[in-house]
Amino acid sequence: MFDALTFAALPAGDEALRPLARQFAEEALAALPPDIRARSWSGFDQDFSRRLGAAGLLGLTLPKAYGGGARGPFARFVVVEELLAVGAPVAAHWIADRQSAPLILNFGSEAQRQTYLPAICRGELVFCIGMSEPGAGSDLAGVRTRAERTAEGWRVNGQKIWTTNAMHGDYMIALVRTSGGVEDRRAGLSQIIIDLKAPGVTVRPIADLTGDAHFAEVFFDNVDLPADALIGEEGEGWAQVTAELAFERSGPERIYSSVVLLDAWTEHLRRVGRADGAALALLGELTARLAVLRAMSIACTARLAAGESPVVEASLVKDLGTAFEQALPATIGDDLAAHPDEGVDPDLYRTLLYTTHIAPSFSLRGGTREILRGIIARGMGLR
Ligand SMILES: Cc1cc2nc3c(=O)[nH]c(=O)nc-3n(C[C@H](O)[C@H](O)[C@H](O)COP(=O)(O)OP(=O)(O)OC[C@H]3O[C@@H](n4cnc5c(N)ncnc54)[C@H](O)[C@@H]3O)c2cc1C
């Protein structure tokens, strides 16, 4: 499998997007302190997303006919990397741009594409992912939320949990059971677009360890949906979700979650003038790890650009990437604690506290470490 991850360079034509993305992000974020920028993934700013859309920086992988950039995964890599590097608030367009739009493009009807994709490219629609349930997280085949056919379309009953941005969302793409029971496992699962403003939908935010509420429980009580709410084929939900998870796990997003902290600490070293061998060795080690992960992520992107679905390789990058992201706050915290005479800027301290509290979630969201390692082991022929 490792032969598949060969070095790849970002094409010059896509690199050309970098100055625009950088300028855009830096101007928009100049006034924000690092502990706010460290929230990047959960930073919700619809105005920022709309401006990104207007600048042509969303929907880069989508065809022009739907308002997209007609470029590809490398272009998206460059833009996402620039946004995450400075901690831009990406939550309002994040899931739609990364996951929902490619899913609708690949499996949706022409009417669904026309309805949703141009608005996603403009940064106007917030989507969320309704996979997890109280009894179905790693084991998605245990999904119980049910959509039943009615004369007009579908009626949904059940519950989802940990739904990022459900409280801000326009639509959820939910994995639901349209036939059979949990004993049938993967058979009978389908994907359906749920209008979160529809009668019968209740969204209850959940606070995390940091006190922020960026995900929610969502309840469906006899929610009536039109017939064209179904995405793709009835009963094909499992295959569709597997393809969707490849988009979720293969971008550059799994290596930069703690990068605002790394940046703030580097700035601290500069400010206090600490450039001894130990500090430089640690900074060098962290930078080298990030550089290797970035090279691996670009190699994965090359596979996506070639039209492949690098599920195993993306799992490898996510597992190693989240280990790095989680190690950073502890490493930097230890370094600062070992230099008690240095005045630590309150912004750096707040950023360290926030990142320390949120880091455990990095290896849970998008599939846990253990599940990814199972996929990697299978890919290597070990299971
Ligand atoms: C910040 C955050 C955002 C999230 N956003 C969303 C979202 O938008 N939409 C959504 O649908 N979900 C979301 N989730 C949910 C996330 O995908 C699930 O939490 C995750 O898939 C794990 O499922 P679970 O919580 O049911 O844990 P479980 O599946 O019950 O797992 C518990 C533990 O057992 C381990 N385990 C389970 N099965 C195996 C196995 N076969 N082999 C080895 N170990 C195993 C797991 O690795 C884990 O350590 C989010 C989670 C977080 C933390």
Give an overview in words.
This protein has 383 residues and is an alpha+beta fold. 47% of the residues lie in helices and 14% in strands. A hairpin with a 3-residue loop joins β2 and β3. α9 (259-272) packs antiparallel against α12 (346-358), α11 packs across α12 and α11 crosses α13. The longest helix has 29 residues, at 277-305. The radius of gyration is 21 Å and the shape is globular. The model has no long low-confidence stretch (mean pLDDT 94). The protein binds flavin-adenine dinucleotide. The site of flavin-adenine dinucleotide has 20 residues, from β1, β3 and α13.
Quick structural overview:
This protein is an alpha+beta fold and 383 residues long. It has helices at residues 12-15, 18-29, 34-37, 46-54, 73-86, 91-107, 110-121, 237-249, 259-272, 277-305, 311-337, 346-358, 369-379, and strands at residues 127-130, 146-149, 153-164, 171-177, 189-195, 201-206, 215-226, 230-231.
Fold blueprint:
Layout lengths: L11 H4 L2 H12 L4 H4 L8 H9 L18 H14 L4 H17 L2 H12 L5 E4 L15 E4 L3 E12 L6 E7 L11 E7 L5 E6 L8 E12 L3 E2 L5 H13 L9 H14 L4 H29 L5 H27 L8 H13 L10 H11 L4
Helix pairs in contact: 2-5, 6-7, 6-8, 9-11, 9-12, 10-11, 11-12, 11-13
Flavin-adenine dinucleotide binds next to β1, β3 and α13.
Flag low-confidence runs: none
Bound molecules: flavin-adenine dinucleotide
Main sheet summary: 4 strands, mixed
* Structural shape: globular
What's the helix-strand series?
A: HHHHHHHEEEEEEEEHHHHHH
Work out the strand percent.
5-15%
Rg over C-alpha atoms, rounded to the nearest angstrom: 21 Å
Contiguous helical run count: 13
> What class do helices, strands and sheet pairing give?
alpha+beta
Query: What is the average per-residue confidence, as pLDDT, rounded to a whole number?
Result: 94
Beta-strand segment tally: 8
- Cα end-to-end separation: 14 Å
Measured as a percent range, the helix fraction is 40-55%
Spatial ordering of strands, largest sheet: 1-4-5-8
